[in-house]
Specification:
203 residues; mainly beta; 4-stranded mixed β-sheet; 0% helix
Amino acid sequence: VTVNKAQQTISWQSSFENLDVFSTVSLDATASGLTEVAYSIAEGEQGKASIEGNVLSFNKAGTVHVVATAAQSDIYEGVSDTVSVEVHLAQPMVSVLPTVEAVAYGTALTNAMLQGGVAKYGETTVEGSFAWADERITEGLMPNTYSFNVRFTPADATHYSTADSTVDVTVNKAQQTISWQSSFENLNVFSTVTLDARASGTT
């Protein structure tokens, strides 16, 4: 009678949920045959992540495959199991909104300059810039205060995603001017003048 080695399975205890490029994972997998388990990154994906000891860390967003390999023993065959890990860009949060000066009625929103603003990931300030998320204009909006979408774009797009927020913009009444069409030249005390002046706001 030939007695073959038994097949063993690998069970993962590690959680691979909600990971971003700055996450680390303590790799924990056990083999049913209680043999030693070693960890590696799938062939061709070593640039995406690395393993030091049993700690998995990431270099970029995307999908990376992690392999757990249980050694064979006198009783059990060796076995490998691969998990697919989804890694997301780190999501910064806008901690200080940019400000914008009030604009006059009819001014394009793109001409309203955003100033300041801070985005953070945890306690780390993320370098980047703020800009209007769309190209809508304030022309046609009655004087009032409106909310417009603003997008933070990180300088390091390899590790961070964009972040959206809203900024209030005050639309003030526009200044108007008066243009005279009447002529006031060569007048004497018996002259009359038809007054004709026009306001730029057509009021």
